[in-house]
Amino acid sequence: MLVAELKSFYAVARCGTVTKAAAQLGVSQPTVTGQLRQLESRYGVELFHRQGRGMRLSDAGHSLMPMVEKLVQQETEIDFRLRDASDLREGNLRIGATGPFYIMDTVRSYNQRYPGIDLTLTIGNSQSMLQALHDYRIEIATSSFLMDDRHLYRRRIAADPIRVVTHRDHPLARRGQVRLADLAEHALLLREPGSMTRQLTEDALRAAGVAVRRTLEIGSRESIRQAILCGLGISLIPSREIPSHPDLAALDIQGADIVMHEYLYCLRERQPVQLIARFLEMAPAAN
């Protein structure tokens, strides 16, 4: 019971609410609430301060958190190593990616070679995928962020030039290429904070001394594509991520070399585990 209670404590501490924690654990909200109450009453401690529906760690909760985090990680590692002992005849490999464009061929090859392994592919921005890797929620991550961390194994798997994408009827679409200065008078569509595409766009504009007239923040590739088609603005998108559509035009950027690098990561301590090692063997390597 103590381990289950501590897992509920850990989930609530990470998620901030009982509702989100219960969804992550796959149990009911009353179960999580009951486990927290049992844990606190058994030892006579207050682990959280209740603020409406939110939960904030108390001093006692803060001091307990590092030990519980190690316990959760150890439990995940035990489960993973036991599954690994089956010689890849069964198991689950969880992959987090910024998009399917750079990793899907490897996923397909892995699935064909090891059909007994259940593959889960989660899509998110670069920062969230690296956080999920550190939290043991995934085994493999792809990210556009160059992260120097001695705990991480890293390999570059793609180098993708960024282009300007517009509607085919947009005034810029008639040009074969554009300068960053040409974007100043047009509405620019940006991904959410944490997106490497957004960071590269903003860094390039800042370096060129360009201030665009208007920006709109849109939280997904698919939504940006639809916004361009609806005439809301233009966007900078890595070449391999540009959707194929007759009403879209992709323009080269003159005088600026903006390249999206994609990296594959795993925790270095887990690199020898068979489920992960076999995936790394299949993944590409870019210069």
Automatic annotation (TrEMBL):
Annotated InterPro entries: LysR_HTH_N, LysR_subst-bd, Tscrpt_reg_LysR, WH-like_DNA-bd_sf, WH_DNA-bd_sf
Origin: domain of life: Bacteria
Keyword Amino-acid biosynthesis among UniProt keywords: no
CDD domains named in the record: PBP2_LTTR_substrate
Keyword list, A-Z: DNA-binding, Transcription, Transcription regulation
Pfam families found in the cross-reference section: HTH_1, LysR_substrate
GO molecular function, one term: transcription cis-regulatory region binding
Residue span, HTH lysR-type domain: 1-58
Family in the record: Belongs to the LysR transcriptional regulatory family.
Protein name per its UniProtKB record: HTH-type transcriptional activator CmpR
Organism, as annotated: Achromobacter veterisilvae
